Amino acid sequence: METIIVIASAVVIDVALGDPPNAFHPVAWMGKVISLLEKGGLKLNPTAQFIYGALMTLFITALFVIPVYFLFRYLADVHIVIRIIAAAILLKSAFSIRGLRRAAFKVKRLLENEKLDEMRFELRALVSRDTSDLPEPLLVSAAVESVGEGTCDSLVAPLFYFLFLGVPGAIGYRVVNTLDAMIGYHGKYEYLGKFAARLDDVLNFIPARLAALLLVLAAIIKRNGKNAWRIAFRDHARTESPNAGWPMAAMAGALNVRLEKPGHYILGEARSTLVPDTIADAINIFTIASALWIMICFITGGVEIVTTQAFG
Question: Distance between alpha carbon 35 and the CA centroid of its chain, in Å?
Fold first, then answer.
């Protein structure tokens, strides 16, 4: 029952309050530590960069996970209400429903008001690509892709690891995912971020496919599940990432659109035009998928209760 209450409380905190200011947000703290430590690694040769990056990844993960682990070891003997509050607050910091919705809706409004310069700036919070020369359809595509991929990174994966490893598992996932988001790229971070990027690939292997399935189920509710599944199965391997293609392709199929990152991949088919309202449609699909995943987490928690009672 405690698992269910913690998830429900974390979701209520997220939906009602959103993300805390950066000064109080663990993910912002992770970003600061990563920014501080990466500077020393970039001065090394490729082999040394890889080793430094691997050690940096393990160190930062331990830096955030170990205190959380011992905190809950201590709270095991404290009143359950205090333990639930602490768990809900920390779990909420590992995922974001309201934040992703808000960022995507802001991009949509700026596009509708033809404030393209502001929109390109805001889009940087969702995607890593250069948006300075992208036409409107590709700006919409970038936003929709981020919502699709965010279904995994921002919700499914953190709760997945919470179910199996508790709050330390959710925090550990968020550390690795933040490392991948900051240094898991080719070019400047080719060697420094390789270990973090590969570890993120491993951690997202199951959650990414779960996210795609959830988007397909959400599309069924919107009466387009068959196409979502067809495109996810057909196009998921077109991205460089072994995971990101699954939820993004499912989203493309659910919306009957073609999503494109020029020079890298094309997902889906252009049956519908990419317009600002496409972003709203993507958010609706994401919201339904989020609700389905939370229900599944509740059911999983219920099964755990029954199993514990049955086998003691």
Answer: 20
How far is it, in rounded angstroms, from Cα 88 to Cα 72? 12
Tell me: pLDDT of 305 over 80: no
pLDDT of res. 309: 53
Question: How do the domains of the chain map onto residue ranges?
Answer: 2-311
pLDDT digits (tens, 9 = 90+) for 62-71: 999 999 999 9
Per-residue model confidence as pLDDT tens digits over 4-59: 999 999 999 999 999 999 999 999 999 999 999 999 999 999 999 999 999 999 99
Handedness of CA 263, 215, 222, 119 (dihedral sign): negative
* DSSP class per residue in 234-289: HHGGGSSSTTTHHHHHHHHHHHT-EEEETTTEEEE--SS---HHHHHHHHHHHHHH
Q: Which helix (H) or strand (E) holds 312?
A: none
By CB atoms closer than 10 A (0-12, 13-18, 19+), residue 132 is exposed
* 192 contacts 54 by C-beta, under 8 angstroms: no
Residue 256 near residue 272 (C-beta atoms within 8 A): yes
